[in-house]
Amino acid sequence: MNSLTFLTLLSFGIASVSAADPKPESEFTTTDPKKVKILEDSSREKDPQIDHFKHLCPGLGGYQVIHEGGDSRSWINLIYDGGKTDLMNATLIACPGQFPAKANDVVQWRGFRQGGSFVPYAIIYRMMSNADDAKQTRLETLVIIKLDKEKSSVVGHVLAKEGNEKAEMLADKLCRP
After folding, report:
1. CA dist., res. 136 & res. 127, Å (int)
2. Contact present, 156 and 162 (Cβ < 8 Å)
3. What is the DSSP string of 120-160?
4. CA–CA separation, 80 and 78 (whole Å)
């Protein structure tokens, strides 16, 4: 076999592996109350019993995000094809400390490109809580959700100080089809 034939076969083999195994990517959506549909919000009530809210936020891949909370806690749930997941307990358990709440307006979606479309398989988002210490130290956790339509579930978490890259690697390992 001459070197030109070998290089051609080698490059074809690399291209085949690359095409069969797309590289994970991230896309982002928002939970910013100014950019989403407010379904309910105690800040709009005259005398609410407790703080609470439910916001319909954009999603990807057929999913919609519900950012909801109450009593100084918040989390996200998902809607897919009319079916709603309930991720509250699993999310709150994944976050150490008291009063865990979504820390920012960002939802990171992990997925890959397929036929020009983004196909998500996981979500990563940041939660913040207070440690059970006298200083009320802030704790940040990255929560990982495996997307499986109405059976989507919290599959892991990483302390934010360990880095977003670690959360992405865990999401890719646990959630990628």
Report:
1. 15
2. no
3. EEEEEEEEEEE-SSTT--EEEEEEEEE-BTBT-EEEEEEEG
4. 7
Contact indicator for 22, 16 with CB cutoff of 8 Å: no
pTM equals: 0.85
**SS3 call for 53:** strand
Q: How many CA atoms lie within 13 A of 154 on its CB side?
A: 20
How far apart CA 24 and CA 177 sit, in angstroms, is 11
Token readout for 64 is: 């919609």
Residue 26 CA to residue 146 CA, distance in Å, equals: 14
pLDDT of 104-135, one tens digit each? 999 999 999 998 899 999 999 999 998 877 67
Q: Which of 154, 172, 22 is closest to 87 using CA atoms?
A: 154
